[in-house]
């Protein structure tokens, strides 16, 4: 029987490791709510160790743009790192270019779940509650939270599965790519902001 993971547990693990919300939730689920084991799991994956750099200032980086060949979709994106040396490196620029292409294709609305307005989540929770009306009462709350988590994963860039990994058995999330790059270059890498434009869109 799987252990129910509370939002408080996820927040506590996130505060301790700096890892992304979905990574923390996944690690807790895999370790049946054991925080210490979850920390170890995140470290083994290279997520927690990379995230320890999160407190360091990242004021370098680059602004990149991507225009789809038909001219109907465009993306502006800012990704930061700590030094100009890394900002000019092939690995960093490749990551930023891939990210811009991913945003054009996958239509995220926010960088991370932290940016999602509380009223948006409340509305989605209300809709999910109505959709879960036929679910047995003891399982309803979990069903509602599952639906909300699924929506957040779809609209938050860092939680999305990388578009170029769609054919893979275990696609990487954008957060996993970011954390891996951070560990590789030894610097804090942050996706600061993006704007996606679509012809005729809002």
Keywords:
single chain, 202 residues, alpha+beta, Helicase, Ruva Protein, domain 3, Tetrahydropterin Synthase, Chain A, 3 domains, 3-stranded antiparallel beta sheet, 9 helices
Short description:
With 202 residues, the protein is an alpha+beta fold.
Task: Tell me the distance between the termini.
Answer: 45 Å
- Helix/strand-derived class? alpha+beta
Strand content: 5-15%
Instruction: Give the spatial strand order of the biggest sheet.
Output: 1-2-3
> In CATH, what is the homologous superfamily of the largest domain?
Elongation factor Ts, dimerisation domain
- Shape-level CATH architecture of the largest domain: 2-Layer Sandwich
Uncertain ranges: none
Instruction: Fill in the CATH topology of the largest domain.
Output: Tetrahydropterin Synthase, Chain A
Helix and strand element order: HHHHEEHHHHHE
Number of beta strands: 3
Q: Given the structure, what is the number of helices?
A: 9
Say what oligomer this is. single chain
CATH class of the largest domain: Alpha Beta
Q: Can you tell me about this structure?
A:
This protein has 202 residues and is an alpha+beta fold. The protein contains nine helices and three strands. The chain has three domains: 7-52, Helicase, Ruva Protein, domain 3, CATH 1.10.8.10; 58-113 and 156-198, Tetrahydropterin Synthase, Chain A (2-Layer Sandwich), CATH 3.30.479.20; 117-153, no CATH class. The protein is globular and about 55 Å long. The N and C termini lie far apart (45 Å). The protein has a three-stranded antiparallel sheet. Helix 1 (7-17) crosses helix 2, helix 1 (7-17) packs across helix 3 (35-44) and helix 2 (21-30) packs across helix 3. It has helices at residues 7-17, 21-30, 35-44, 47-51, 84-87, 90-106, 118-131, 137-155, 174-185, and strands spanning 60-67, 73-81, 190-198. The longest helix is centred in the C-terminal third of the chain and has 19 residues, at 137-155. A hairpin with a 5-residue loop joins strand 1 (60-67) and strand 2.
């Amino acid at each position: 029987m799987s252990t129910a993971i509370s939002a408080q547990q996820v927040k506590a693990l996130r505060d301790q490791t700096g890892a992304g919300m979905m990574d923390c939730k996944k690690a807790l689920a895999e370790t049946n709510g054991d925080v210490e084991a979850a920390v170890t799991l995140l470290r083994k994956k290279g997520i927690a160790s990379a995230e320890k750099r999160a407190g360091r200032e990242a004021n370098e980086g680059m602004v990149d743009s991507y225009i789809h060949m038909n001219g109907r979709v465009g993306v502006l994106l800012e990704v930061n790192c700590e030094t100009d040396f890394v900002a000019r490196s092939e690995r960093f620029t490749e990551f930023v270019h891939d990210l811009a292409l991913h945003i054009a294709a996958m239509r995220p609305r926010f960088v991370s779940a932290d940016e999602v307005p509380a009223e948006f989540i409340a509305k989605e929770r209300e809709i999910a509650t109505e959709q879960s009306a036929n679910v047995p009462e003891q399982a309803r709350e979990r069903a509602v939270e599952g639906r909300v988590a699924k929506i957040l994963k779809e609209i938050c860039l860092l939680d999305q599965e990388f578009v170029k990994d769609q054919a893979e058995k275990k696609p990487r999330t954008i957060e996993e790519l970011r954390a891996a790059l951070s560990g590789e270059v030894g610097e804090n890498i942050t996706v600061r902001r993006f704007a996606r434009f679509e012809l005729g869109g809002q």
